[in-house]
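*** Fold description ***
***
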Amino acid sequence: MAAQGQLVRRLVGPDAPKPARMTEAEYRRKMNGDAMATKKLAAGIRGFTVDQIRLEKILAEKL
């Protein structure tokens, strides 16, 4: 059983730098320029879709 209490943030401190703001066009340009990022994102989306379909089938069987 998990302990009750306050969750302490450990990975990012209060004085960590904020991510740079960018427009959608800037994001797309950077993303398209990074073949590995584009490939990994696409693979993640495909995997999520497969899992969603699998979950929907399981839920349909239980209803």
Q: What stands out?
A: The chain has a mean pLDDT of 88. DSSP finds two helices and no strands in the chain. Residues 24-62 form one domain.
